UniProtKB/TrEMBL annotation, chain A:
Start and end residues of each Septin-type G domain: 41-314
Origin organism lineage: Eukaryota, Metazoa, Chordata, Craniata, Vertebrata
Similarity comment: family membership: Belongs to the TRAFAC class TrmE-Era-EngA-EngB-Septin-like GTPase superfamily. Septin GTPase family.
UniProt xrefs under Pfam families: Septin (PF00735)
Gene Ontology molecular function, alphabetical: GTP binding
Source species: Sander lucioperca
Cell division keyword on record: yes
Swiss-Prot/TrEMBL site (Important for dimerization) positions: F163
Protein's name according to its UniProt entry: Septin
From TrEMBL, chain B:
Positions of region (Disordered): 414-441
Homology family: Belongs to the TRAFAC class TrmE-Era-EngA-EngB-Septin-like GTPase superfamily. Septin GTPase family.
Domain Septin-type G: start-end pairs: 60-326
Native source species: Sander lucioperca
Name this polypeptide is given: Septin
Keywords on record: GTP-binding, Nucleotide-binding
Any one GO MF annotation of this record: GTP binding
InterPro entries: G_SEPTIN_dom, P-loop_NTPase, Septin
Pfam families: Septin (PF00735)
Database matches in PROSITE patterns: G_SEPTIN
Length: 370, 441
């Protein structure tokens, strides 16, 4: 199922009946116009991958976008990683398919979870996401808004190791630190070390623990009631399959007479795109073919708005305390200031008035003396 | 079936050693003129000595202790079950332990007529914490404690070493996660702390997630990292010709990439232990699938006795030497005469008592000093107060004097004023007289 089918134009068939012809206005072509304009403008998408070393993140990204983004990568030795800090590395590529251009940015987080002491190892990542929000906030509030570059992170793929019995403390802490800033999609990495039973057990376990710890991962939107049954069924299956158990591969092997991406073992060949082997296809469909735009929307409408509201509240309370008009950002009046801030503002106002009076008095006195 | 009766193979080892001993004895005879090499006129029968040794050790039973170090869920319990072909009771561990703790479990196994007391020590919670800097400590402490217990038993006056349940760890299986890149930083740090205390065999767990080419690279990377960081892992011994060839070839296959499973799958017309995937079946005992058979061969069938020996002769001796040196023992005194233990004990005891007395003296001295200090402080304070009092008194006197002066001044003034007044009055009295006089004129 591709997006094309969903956005098929819904122009009703023109009948010979002239009465009906009069009723046809023509704005049913809007979807087509949107389609044309968006193709012209091009799309952008920022994807973050996070997880320990050796989970197959780079391989999966290469498999998803069918390119090789990590040509000359230097991997650190174990001794170098004992005290490693987390870095943020961005790779940007421009890819095109059937006339549709996509500017894809992959944000990599090497070093996450690799050191012996991983206290707050997610801090550089949250700082990065906040930075992107801040930059967009400034751009959006600026005077010239023609060419805003949207570097906000739209989606974070978090790789959970399949070797354990569920989520580990570092997984829980990371997701809790990020779930209100970015759409998190947890994945079970290297799923070719789990039999189907084990995968099911692990998925149930992880879903349970996500609920237990109150982690808000990305939820697929409910499908509209007027969608066809097939789509609804697929959507339901998709939702029951999370977290996706994925396998990636950089190599093409020969299986069943075809050349496919896969991994060659002495006991068999794992095909990345075989639905009975892993959930890679589901992930790709969800991430790229159906929900890419929804991820962007949720980032803009929910995460970014939260950040913005928080930012503004902080700024106004600071302003009331400092009485300084330094910020270049035009301050819009808060529609619903909370009671505490109001009280503070009132107090500070009164103080200001008193000081003003005293000042006046003193000036008066000085004049009198003169 | 895990050929446990190959434990008699280790008895054969002892047999070999005895033969070697016999051979060296012959050489000794040649070099010493007093002893002669005699040839036997008939069959005496002492060639049954190795057999006697073997039967004695079989009746005694054997003891073997394995330590499994690896993150939660990496497959330690499953591998133990697979190696010994039984189901040791095990609950799944949780990821949320606050720290690492060791869980030893002892089992009695029997194969043919050979008894084995097997202890498996599990590291629970290893690798789960966010801060893993202290993760190695409980493991090192446990190993040291077992050595300490044995040392205590050895140093006892009334001891029963032959009856003693030896809990010293003979082998540490270190489970490496199959990331395919290299060792984790925690692995490196932990193995460095353990390599001088225990025989380490590193193994790659859950190896069915690595393809053959990746595995080759991974093994090379791991070994090079271990070598470059000076980590000493256990090398299978190559000095015994009977097993040197196979041991040498196995040394080249380290670390073993293993897959464990207790489930049975039908392959062809046989039922084997394997893992069933949608894309194939990984057979545990198939040498082209994983190195499980190699591990079993090396660990149990060939080198178990050597592991015990190494633990006793190398790691335990190192521990014992360090411990005793700490306590102040030496092998020879300054005159190169061997110390008798009794003398050393006496000397130690005297030293200890002397220490104790000295410490007591010190404390008493300190106490006395403190008292003196406090006393002098108090005296100082007293003096100060006294001074202040004097000062105040003087000030008071001064004030009083001043006041007195002023009073006198005032009195004088008053007197002076009174006199003036009187003078003025008399003057004024006389004045009107004058005026009267003038008037009268």
């Amino acid at each position: 199922m591709t997006t094309n089918i969903r956005y098929k134009s819904r122009i009703p068939v023109k009948t010979e009946d002239s009465a009906e012809e009069k009723q046809y206005v023509g704005f049913a072509t809007l979807p087509n116009q949107v389609h044309r304009k968006s193709v012209k403008k091009g799309f952008d998408f920022t994807l973050m991958v996070a997880g320990e070393s050796g989970m197959g993140k780079s391989t999966l990204v290469n498999s998803l976008f069918l390119t090789d983004l990590y040509k000359d990568r230097k991997l650190l030795n174990a001794e170098e990683r004992i005290n490693q800090t987390v870095e943020i590395i961005k790779h940007t590529v421009d890819i095109e398919e059937k006339g549709v251009k996509l500017k894809l940015t992959i944000v990599d987080t090497p070093g996450f979870g690799d050191a012996v002491n991983n206290n707050e190892c997610w801090k550089p990542i949250t700082d990065y996401i906040d930075q992107q929000f801040e930059q967009y906030f400034r751009d959006e509030s600026g005077l010239n808004r023609k060419n805003i570059q949207d570097n906000r992170v739209h989606c974070c793929l978090y790789f959970i190791p399949p070797f354990g019995h569920g989520l580990r403390p570092v997984d829980v802490e990371f997701m809790k630190a990020l779930h209100e800033k970015v759409n998190i999609i947890p994945l079970i990495a290297k799923a070719d070390c789990l039999t189907p039973n084990e995968i099911k057990k692990l998925k149930d376990r992880i879903r349970e623990e996500i609920d237990k710890f109150g982690i808000k991962v990305y939820q697929f939107p409910e499908c509209d009631s007027d969608e066809d049954e097939e789509f609804k069924q697929l959507d339901k299956e998709l939702k029951e399959c999370t977290p996706f158990a994925v396998i990636g591969s950089n190599t093409v092997v020969e299986a069943r007479g075809q050349r496919v991406r896969g991994r060659l073992y002495p006991w068999g060949i794992v095909e990345v795109e075989n639905q009975s082997h892993c959930d890679f296809v589901k992930l790709r469909n969800m991430l790229i073919r159906s929900h890419m735009h929804d991820l962007k929307d949720v980032t803009c409408d929910v995460h970014y708005e939260n950040y913005r509201a928080q930012c503004i509240q902080e700024m106004t309370s600071k302003l009331a305390q400092d009485n300084r008009m330094e910020s270049p950002i035009p301050i819009l009046p808060l529609s619903t200031p909370d009671a505490e801030t109001e009280k503070l503002i009132k107090m500070k106002d009164e103080e200001l008035k008193r000081m003003q009076e005293m000042l006046n008095k003193m000036q008066q006195q000085m004049h009198d003396k003169d | 079936m895990f050929s446990f009766s190959a434990l008699s193979a280790l008895c054969n080892e002892s047999l070999n050693k005895l033969n070697c001993l016999a051979a060296s004895y012959k050489v000794y005879i040649f070099s010493n003129e007093e002893k002669r090499n005699l040839s036997l006129g008939g069959h005496v029968g002492f060639d049954s000595l190795p057999d006697q040794l073997v039967s004695k050790s079989v009746t005694q039973g054997f003891c073997f202790n394995i330590l499994c170090v690896g993150e939660t869920g990496i497959g330690k319990s499953t591998l133990m079950n697979t190696l010994f072909n039984t189901m040791f009771e095990n609950e799944e561990a949780s990821h949320y332990q606050n720290g690492v703790y060791l869980r030893p479990r002892t089992y009695d196994l029997q194969e043919s007529n050979v008894h084995l007391k097997l202890t498996i020590v599990d590291t629970v919670g290893f690798g789960d914490q966010i801060n893993k800097e202290d993760s190695y400590k409980p493991i090192v402490d446990y190993i040291d404690t077992q050595f300490e217990n044995y040392l205590q038993e050895e140093l006892k006056i009334k001891r029963s070493l032959f009856n003693y349940h030896d809990t010293r760890i003979h082998i540490c299986l270190y489970f490496i996660a199959p990331t395919g890149h290299s060792l984790k930083s925690l692995d490196l740090v932990t193995m460095k702390k353990l390599d001088s205390k225990v025989n380490i065999i590193p193994i790659i767990a859950k190896a069915d997630t690595i393809s053959k080419s990746e595995l080759h690279k991974f093994k090379i990377k791991i070994m090079s990292e271990l070598v470059s960081n000076g980590v000493q892992i256990y090398q299978f011994p190559t000095d015994d010709e009977a097993v040197s060839e196979i041991n040498a070839s196995m040394n080249a296959h380290l670390p073993f990439a293993v897959v464990g499973s207790v489930e049975e799958v039908k392959v062809g017309n046989k039922t084997v232990r394997a893992r069933q995937y949608p894309w194939g079946v990984v057979q545990v005992e198939n040498e082209s699938h994983c190195d499980f058979v190699k591990l079993r061969e090396m660990l149990i069938r060939v080198n178990m006795e050597d592991l015990r020996e190494q633990t006793h002769a190398r790691h335990y001796e190192l521990y014992r030497r360090c411990k005793l040196e700490e306590m102040g023992f030496k092998d020879t005194d300054p005159d190169s005469q061997p110390f008798s233990l009794q003398e050393t004990y006496e000397a130690k005891r005297k030293e200890f008592l002397g220490d104790l007395q000295r410490k007591e003296e010190e404390m008493r001295q300190m106490f006395v000093n403190k008292v003196k200090e406090t006393e002098s402080e108090l005296k100082e304070k007293e003096r100060e107060l006294h001074d202040k009092f004097e000062q105040l008194k003087r000030m008071h006197q001064e004030e009083k004097r001043k006041v007195e002066e002023k009073r006198r001044d005032l009195e004088e003034e008053m007197n002076a004023f009174n006199r003036k007044k009187v003078a003025a009055e008399t003057l004024s009295l006389s004045q009107p007289l004058k005026k009267d006089k003038d008037k009268k004129k």
